[in-house]
Amino acid sequence: MYKCFLPRTAILTKRYQQVSRSILHTHFFYSSQWFTKSLKTARKVQFLIKLFWFK
Fold first, then answer.
1. How many domains does the chain have?
2. What is the rounded distance in angstroms from the CA atom of residue 3 to the CA atom of residue 20?
3. How many Å apart are CA 8 and CA 45, to the nearest integer?
4. Distances (CA, A) of 43 to 8, 14, 34, 51
5. Residue 9 CB-half CA count within 13 A
6. pTM score
7. Which one-letter DSSP state was computed for residue 41?
8. Domain residues for 20?
C-alpha cells in the first residue's frame, strides 16, 4: 500500500509544481503588462500636466 501511495504523491507534487509555476508565469506576465500600461498612463498624465502648467 505504501509503495503504490508514493508514486501517486510524486505525480501529484509534480502536477502541483507545474500548475503553480504556470500560475506564477501568467501572474508575472499580466503584472508586467499592467506595470508598463500604468507607466505609459503616468507619462501621459505627466505630459498633460506639463501642457496645462505651462499654458
1. 1
2. 26
3. 54
4. 52, 43, 14, 12
5. 6
6. 0.41
7. H
8. 1-55
What does the pLDDT profile of the chain (55 residues) look like in tens digits?
Answer: 556 666 777 778 888 888 888 888 887 888 888 888 888 998 998 888 888 877 5
Which amino acid makes up residue 49?
I
Query: Which amino acid, one-letter code, is at 33?
Result: Q
Rounded Cα–Cα distance for residues 51 and 27 (Å): 36
At a CB cut-off of 8 Å and minimum separation 6, what does 53 contact? Answer: none
Q: Indicate the SS3 state at residue 28.
A: helix
Number of C-beta neighbours around residue 15 at 10 A:
10
